[in-house]
Amino acid sequence: MKKYLPIIIISMICIFVLSCEQMTKVDHTKGFEVKNNTGVPISGLWVKNSSQSNWGNNKINYMPNGATQIVIVDDLSEKFDIMLRTTNSLTTGFEYARQNITITNGATVSFTNSDVVKEWFIITNNTGVSIAGVWVKANNTSDWGNNLISTTMSDGTSYTYNLTQPLSSNNKFDIMLRTTNSLATGIDYRKTNITITNGISVSVASGDYNIIGDTGPAGGIIFYDKGSESDGWRYLEAAPASSEFNAEWGAYVYDVSGTQTGIGTGKSNTQILNSKLQELGETGRASQLCVALTIGGKNDWFLPSKDELNLMYQNLHLQGLGDFGQGTNSESWKNWAYWSSSQRSNSYYHAWLQHFSDGYQNYYNDKNFTNRVRAVRAF
Q1: Cβ atoms 241, 230 nearer than 8 A
Q2: Over the stretch 311-329, which tens digit does the pLDDT of each residue have?
Q3: What are the C-alpha distances in Å from 131 to residues 67, 103, 134, 135?
Q4: Contact indicator for 88, 44 with CB cutoff of 8 Å
């Protein structure tokens, strides 16, 4: 017996060690699978006990649709919160979440599109009047899309807008309320270039009345409001359609240095261009004829800059206003091409124009080409 005692002791020690290892293994391999069936790739996975407030660290780099991720935990007796996001940040991207769920060892927790946490904001009508149309668009787009409501929205009531794309730090929106269900009629109230956060409430009030499309002091149409007066002006007014004419830009094969493209530069562009045209002895050019106009008792007209011209296209023509393209040129496309006062950078031959048939801006026509002209003024 003594002979076998060391062997017996060693065997018992080995059994004890193996048992400990197995116990340790079981204790530290409790876990479950998270499966991505959302239909989109996932870049963030967070898991926490429901009693905790801190989500901790992202557990993945990338999980394509259909993939699974094993999550190891120490204790399955508590309930869990699980969050998936389309980015690796807790503050951006679409969120898919399950909260306060009981999980058994080895279980699979599948996330589908129905688990998405909608990002949204509230639009409240505080205009003092009933609203028949609500439109929302990203600030960097021109298309207002469709009216979001089918019944009248009384003063003091709200509409919840669910986003179709995740919010991010650079998401700015435009919101428009109208007293009719048409983009071309009724009174328009508008909030523009506003930063939206999830769940925010945006109040559109009577002071948000949008003057765009109204008749200006000279009988034209207001197409821009910069929000407050500076440098002696706040609004831009397009001349009536009856004042349109055809003309060359002028200064062909000469550089007109100093013209710019931005909003608010059309008047100075016109002055620069007319100074050059006078130096060259040219007459009857687009900018000169604009300055010579007197409409509605106003004689401060100028040729719009590239960006001002585009504002007329966006805020007037696309809204069915301004009667553009009514020229009588035999080649119909020429009735839609409008000169701006912005020369192409350092070009002796070309200036910017815009086709109001499709909004396309280019500088392909030479300066001695005849295009349509619509004057504007600032006030």
Answers
A1: no
A2: 999 999 998 899 998 877 7
A3: 47, 49, 8, 11
A4: yes
